[in-house]
Automatic annotation (TrEMBL), chain A:
<comment type="subunit">
    <text>The complex is composed of two ATP-binding proteins (CysA), two transmembrane proteins (CysT and CysW) and a solute-binding protein (CysP).</text>
</comment>
<keyword id="KW-0764">Sulfate transport</keyword>
<keyword id="KW-0472">Membrane</keyword>
<protein>
    <recommendedName>
        <fullName>Sulfate transport system permease protein CysT</fullName>
    </recommendedName>
</protein>
<feature type="transmembrane region" description="Helical">
    <location>
        <begin position="12"/>
        <end position="37"/>
    </location>
</feature>
<dbReference type="InterPro" id="IPR005667">
    <property type="entry name" value="Sulph_transpt2"/>
</dbReference>
<dbReference type="GO" id="GO:0005886">
    <property type="term" value="C:plasma membrane"/>
</dbReference>
<feature type="transmembrane region" description="Helical">
    <location>
        <begin position="58"/>
        <end position="83"/>
    </location>
</feature>
<dbReference type="GO" id="GO:0015419">
    <property type="term" value="F:ABC-type sulfate transporter activity"/>
</dbReference>
<comment type="similarity">
    <text>Belongs to the binding-protein-dependent transport system permease family. CysTW subfamily.</text>
</comment>
<feature type="transmembrane region" description="Helical">
    <location>
        <begin position="244"/>
        <end position="265"/>
    </location>
</feature>
<keyword id="KW-0813">Transport</keyword>
<keyword id="KW-1133">Transmembrane helix</keyword>
<dbReference type="Pfam" id="PF00528">
    <property type="entry name" value="BPD_transp_1"/>
</dbReference>
<dbReference type="InterPro" id="IPR011865">
    <property type="entry name" value="CysT_permease"/>
</dbReference>
<keyword id="KW-0812">Transmembrane</keyword>
<feature type="transmembrane region" description="Helical">
    <location>
        <begin position="131"/>
        <end position="155"/>
    </location>
</feature>
């Protein structure tokens, strides 16, 4: 089992104090503020999220599109990493740099750009419109926006792991008579699995909370394409801070649960390797 | 030796603080927190007003623009605004109610219930009006694609909503019929953007929908823009009657008292009522309240019958509670389906 020990117990106190102070300042205090405002408004604001039809459908939509986008990112991201690490081709450095663009681009810009392209009169939307497929202003559009902003997560978490994977592992497997598929399935995939999962979890977490890029492409129709973060903004707009934080807390708890589960699976996978 | 060095440092410090104080007092700053479509308007007004104050004080005016409700919340949460010039009185009332920074009787402090300019809600349709949209009733017909922002997130959208609702309520004298009418319009709505400008983009640039419900000034701006690009592909339709969209102003007294800018803020807002400012206002497509100036621009602002919010609901407060608060009419429209 993998265990890390502090280098020296005597000098650990100060760094630990600093770390926990910083963590509380940046993460714990703001988040507990969220819980406190919610607590002030009572349990009903939390129950509303599950009982009120409009909130419930937004909740389902947000988690649905978030997970679909995360899975797409997992598959495409993996394929992308594979090509990027295993093959040499002209312009590879450029492509490697391009991957990070969704990180740097303001999400609103991404949203507007994607809407322009995927709207019925946009360059890609135009191709799909005659087939009866509408992309912008439907859940499909939201998924595209989320795939776009979540893409670098999977690539950047898996890439270093795949790069460090010793070639000898594969070679020995092949020498021992394994087919390419068995090699991939029994040797490579178990090594990559933990990082793939954590990349997907990050893309998922980012996706359900995403606001900027989605509001432009979703159309925001209640019950159809309205996402949960938009409803938080809506509540704030009505000066209903309690209800807004109530929704935020529900989102937070559910995503924490999902992330925690993924972490557990990932740890198990990592442990099995050693 | 050491003590002399120290006193030198002290002298320097004292001088430094002294000059800083002078710098602060010599230059006065006003912050005008406004909503989105007034950006260009206030750029011009601020320029003229600071010129008129030359000699009296070295004045700079900062502008902040955003969604009206968002701006109100920023002021409540501590944005040090001297004046607010927002899209609806409900937002100013909310600041007064929640934060006490604005006096409760703010509407009595300037002429015309503190409304220096107003607008109304009109339709923007595609060139030569292929769907023959003439009035509010046409918007509820089958097969009409309507674009309007979300009343939950946009102040302008609340005016749109109440304009349609008010028309129906006044015509059929029945709240049920008016609600059914509004429901039909929102069933025809293809996209609910979060703000007025977003809806304009959806309609104009994305080519979605047959009619955009919007402010008169926003519609005129879209028309000017499309004319500039060489395609006059839109036209404005004035419905038979519409709502009087009053855009009020107020001094944020809680802030100005602390900054000592109350008088200046008062002068600034009073300036909006002068013929000079009213002319600028008309140029930026808002309707001036000054009758004489309005007469000059008669050709730009076609006559339209308007009703005010008090004609259809008692007050903004009531209208908000009934229509836009949680579980209100707007929520019911979307849960009924």
């Amino acid at each position: 089992m993998l265990q890390t020990r502090p280098y020296s117990k005597t000098h650990f106190g100060l760094s630990f104090g600093l770390t926990s102070f910083y963590l509380s300042l940046m993460v714990v205090v703001p988040l507990s503020g969220l819980f406190m405002v919610t607590a002030k408004s009572g349990l009903s604001v939390i129950l509303d999220v599950f009982l009120e039809e409009r909130l419930r459908s937004a909740l389902t939509l947000s988690f649905f599109v978030g997970s679909v986008a995360a899975v797409i990112n997992l598959l495409l991201g993996f394929l992308f990493v594979w090509v990027l690490v295993r093959y040499d081709f002209p312009g590879k450095k450029w492509i490697d740099t391009l991957v990070d663009l969704p990180f740097t681009l303001p999400t609103a810009v991404a949203g507007i750009a994607l809407t322009t392209i995927y709207a019925e009169n946009g360059s890609i939307g135009k191709i799909f419109a005659p087939l009866g497929i509408k992309i912008a202003y439907t859940p499909l559009g939201i998924i595209i926006a989320l795939v776009f902003i979540g893409f670098p997560f999977v690539v950047r978490t898996v890439q270093p792991v795949l790069e460090d994977l010793p070639k000898e592992l594969e070679e020995s497997a092949r020498c021992l008579g394994a087919t390419p598929f068995t090699t991939f399935y029994k040797v490579i995939l178990p090594e990559l699995w933990p990082s793939l999962l954590s990349g997907m979890a990050m893309a998922f977490a980012r996706g359900i909370g995403e606001y900027g890029s989605v509001v432009f492409i979703s159309g925001n129709l209640p019950g159809k394409t309205e996402i949960l973060p938009l409803l938080i903004v809506t509540k704030l707009e009505q000066y209903e801070y309690g209800k807004a934080t109530g929704i935020a807390v529900v989102m937070l708890v559910i995503s924490f649960g999902i992330m925690f589960a993924i972490n557990v699976i990932q740890n198990r996978a990592a442990r099995r390797l050693l | 030796m050491k003590s002399k060095k120290f006193s030198n440092f002290r002298r320097f410090l004292a001088l430094f603080v002294f000059f800083c104080t002078i710098a602060i007092f010599a230059e006065t700053e006003l912050l005008n927190v406004s909503f989105d479509p007034t950006r260009e308007l206030y750029e011009e007004i601020n320029l003229k007003f600071t010129q008129s104050q030359k000699g009296k004080t070295e004045l700079t005016i900062q502008q902040s623009h955003g969604g009206s409700g968002k701006q109100a919340r920023a002021v409540i949460d501590g944005l040090k605004a001297d004046v607010v010039t927002l899209a609806l009185s409900y937002d100013i009332d909310s600041i007064a109610k929640i934060s006490n920074l604005i006096e409760k009787n703010w509407q009595t402090q300037f002429p015309n219930r503190s409304v220096p300019y107003y607008s109304t809600i009109v339709f923007l349709v595609r060139k030569s009006n292929p769907k023959k949209i003439k009035g509010w009733e046409d918007l509820s017909k089958d097969g009409i694609g309507v674009i309007t922002p979300n009343p939950k997130t946009s102040g302008g959208a609340r005016w749109n909503y109440l304009a349609a609702y008010g028309f129906a309520k006044r015509k059929w004298k029945s709240e049920e019929k008016a609600t059914a009418f509004i429901q039909k319009i929102f069933e025809n709505t293809l996209v609910l953007d979060t703000g007025a400008r977003g809806s304009t983009t959806t309609f104009v640039k994305r080519g979605l929908g047959d009619v955009l419900i919007t402010w008169e000034n926003e519609a005129k701006l879209a028309l000017e823009e499309s004319a500039k690009n060489g395609d006059g592909s839109f036209q404005i339709i004035y419905p038979e009657e519409s709502i009087l969209a009053e855009t009020p102003v107020a001094i944020v007294k809680g802030n100005t008292d602390k900054k000592g800018t109350t008088e200046l803020a008062k002068a600034y807002l009073s300036y909006l009522y002068t013929p000079e400012a009213q002319n600028i206002i008309a140029k930026h497509n808002f309707r001036p309240t000054d009758k004489k100036v309005m007469k000059q621009f008669e050709a730009d602002f076609p006559k339209i019958n308007t009703f005010s919010i008090t004609d259809i609901e008692g007050s903004w407060e009531e209208a908000h509670k009934k229509h836009f608060a949680d579980g209100g009419v707007f929520d019911q429209i979307y849960t009924k389906k």
